[in-house]
Every structure is written in C-alpha cells, then in structure tokens.
Amino acid sequence: MSHIVTVQDAVTAFEPWMEPTDAELDAIDAEMPVIRAEMELLDAQIIVIDRTPCQLDERRIRRARRRVLAAHRAHLNGQAGGAA
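Predicted structure:
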C-alpha cells in the first residue's frame, strides 16, 4: 500500500511573498471595465442558451457586444473608466 503525501509547495502556495505586486493590481484595475463588459455579454448569452432568443434578447446581446468593443477600445487607448 502506498501512502499519499502532500507536496510542500502545493500546501504553501499562498505565501505572503507570492502576493500580486502593486503594478499587477493596477493592471487589473485598469482592465476591470473590460472584464465587467465581458461578464455582461456572457450573462446575456447564458440567458438564451436553452431557448430561442426573442427580439429583446437579441438587442441585449448586441448592446453587450458593443459595450465589450467600446471597453476594449477605451482600454487600448488608455482611457480610465472604460465605456458606460
């Protein structure tokens, strides 16, 4: 019978020195409008997974796609806050 043992690196994978740097956190903050827009698009797509989309659903998805594109454009252009 073989024993299962834990690997020390896996157990201590979240040491304080492995925290994200301030620069990494700033990059995440700068990308949050894009992330939110993509989540909104995903939510709109999930709603219609198991049914035929109606006109309202199609409009919601189109708007969400436009918000994603606008947020990406704003992020690439270096604008703070993204698109509303």
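Summary: The chain has a mean pLDDT of 85.
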